[in-house]
Known about the structure:
Distance between the termini: 27 Å
Number of domains: 2
CATH class of the largest domain: Alpha Beta
Strand order of the largest sheet: 2-1-3-4-5
CATH architecture of the largest domain: 3-Layer(aba) Sandwich
Strand content: 15-25%
Largest sheet: 5 strands, parallel
Shape: globular
CATH superfamily of the largest domain: Response regulator
Order of helices and strands: EHEHEHEHEHEEEEHEHHEE
Radius of gyration: 17 Å
Amino acid sequence: MHKILLVEDDEEIVTCLTQFLNSEGYSVKSASGQNGALRLLEDETFDLVLLDISLSDGNGFAVCKAVKSDYGIPVIFLTASGDEYNTVTGFEIGADDYISKPFRPRELASRIKNILRLTGGAGSVVRLGDIVVDTVKGTARKGTRDLYLSALEYRLLLVFLNNRGAVLSRTQLLEAVWDIAGEFVNDNTLTVYIKRLREKIEDNPQEPTVIKTVRGLGYKVDLE
C-alpha cells in the first residue's frame, strides 16, 4: 500500500481527501504546516507528498525543497494559486505535478497513479526514445542537450508521458494545462505550445515521430 503525506491546513479538505484516498487504497498521514510535515518525513517513509503552497506555518515551497533534497520522493502541489509565478517556481524546485483547487477527486487520483507509475514512488529518470526526463529535478534532455522547457511545455510533456499509448483529445490536453499559464489557454494557444514542444523534442518537427497527430481525434505518444 502506497503511503501519502498530505500537507494542507484546511481541515475540511484534509478530512474529505483522506477519506477519498483511503477508499482508493492509499494510506494517508496529514500535517497542517511546514514543521509538522518535516517531522513526519523524518519519522516515516512516504511514497508521495500532496502539498499546498499556503500553510499554517512556513510554506509549501520550503517543504518541496526539503522533500526533493533529502528524500527524493514525488510532489504534487494542491493550491488555489493558479498564477504563473507560483507554477513556475513549483516546477523549478522539482514539483512533479500541479493541480488547482477546486479539483475533481478522480482527476487527482489519476494524477497520483500516473506519477507513482512513472517514479515508482521514489523519483526516477523516465525515457522516451532519446528524451530523458528527470522527474525529481524537473528537467528534460534530448541526448546530452538540455531542452530548456517552459513550465507549460514541461507539463504538456508530462501529460503525454503519463498517458503513453493513449490518444489524447485537444479538450483533454486543454484541461490538463490551462492552469499552468495563469490564464485561460485556448485552442490556438495549445497549437502553438505543441508546435514549440515538437521543435524541441523531434528530430524533424515537420514529420513528428514522438508526438503523433491522430487525425480527427487528437495526439498520441507511444514511444518506449
